[in-house]
Structure formats: structure tokens, C-alpha cells
């Protein structure tokens, strides 16, 4: 199975049975964020980024107890709402914040689905605002 078949298969299955997955072709046809996507130009760089290997490194012995029940929840979860997201509606983003244990919601005006590209300074400021009290 090549990259494109694997990508389409995972998205059409809903990412291993998860009902939140979407078929990438369906998204392209809807014009929600993928209207500028050029398959020929984007497929080559995407395939170069694929790596065969385990999801996690083989040597997990050096992480100690960083991932433990006792430390779970030690950082307050927060959510960044991207006000101009063309992929996920603001209404759905708000629904996610209401249905999960999110302690703080921050809004980024002018940020699309990939906030790190559309509003990197604003996203960095939001992350610092949340991280400083945790340090």
C-alpha cells in the first residue's frame, strides 16, 4: 500500500474506528481548507516525511516516572480556539471545551486551523501565559 492509499484508508476508516475521522477527498470537495491543496505538489514532500519505525523509541527506560498515574493531571489542560478555522467550526471547538476537562480557553483571532503558521506570536504568547504558572 502506498502513502496515498494508506492516507485515504486511515481517513475513510475514521482513524482506527474513531468517528471523528474524515475522508480527505470529502474535505477537499467541501472547500473547507483544502481548496488550495495541490495533490501533486503536496504528495511528494509528504511521502518524504514518512518514516518506518516504532511510534515510540525502543529505549523508554530513561524517562523514569514522567508518565505515571501520580503525575497525570499535574499540568492544567487548556484549549486554544482558532476563531478563523476553516476546518473545525468555532461551534464545534466550543463544544469540545464544554465536554472535556479544560480549565482554560484562549482565543486566537486571525488564526486558521494551523495556528502555528497563521498566528505564531499569538500562539506562543498563549502557551507562555498558560505555562508560566506551571513552572
From TrEMBL:
Keyword Hydrolase attached: yes
Keyword Signal in annotation: no
Coiled-coil intervals, chain numbering: none
GO biological process: jasmonic acid metabolic process; salicylic acid metabolic process
GO terms of molecular function: methyl indole-3-acetate esterase activity; methyl jasmonate esterase activity; methyl salicylate esterase activity
Keywords assigned: Hydrolase
Name by which UniProt lists this protein: Uncharacterized protein
Source organism of the structure: Stephania japonica
Highest classification ranks of the organism: Eukaryota, Viridiplantae, Streptophyta, Embryophyta, Tracheophyta
Amino acid at each position: 500500500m502506498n502513502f496515498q492509499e494508506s492516507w485515504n484508508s486511515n481517513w475513510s476508516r475514521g482513524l482506527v474506528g474513531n468517528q471523528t475521522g474524515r475522508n480527505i477527498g470529502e474535505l477537499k470537495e467541501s472547500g473547507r481548507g483544502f481548496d488550495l491543496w495541490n495533490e501533486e505538489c503536496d504528495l511528494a514532500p509528504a511521502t518524504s516525511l514518512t518514516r518506518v519505525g516504532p511510534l515510540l523509541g525502543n529505549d523508554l527506560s530513561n524517562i523514569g516516572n514522567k508518565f505515571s498515574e501520580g503525575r497525570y493531571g499535574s499540568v492544567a489542560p487548556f484549549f486554544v480556539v482558532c476563531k478563523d478555522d476553516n476546518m473545525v467550526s468555532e461551534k464545534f471547538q466550543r463544544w469540545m471545551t464544554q465536554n472535556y476537562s479544560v480549565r482554560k480557553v484562549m482565543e486566537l483571532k486571525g488564526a486558521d486551523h494551523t495556528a502555528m503558521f497563521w498566528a505564531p506570536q499569538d500562539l506562543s504568547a498563549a502557551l507562555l501565559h498558560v505555562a508560566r504558572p506551571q513552572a
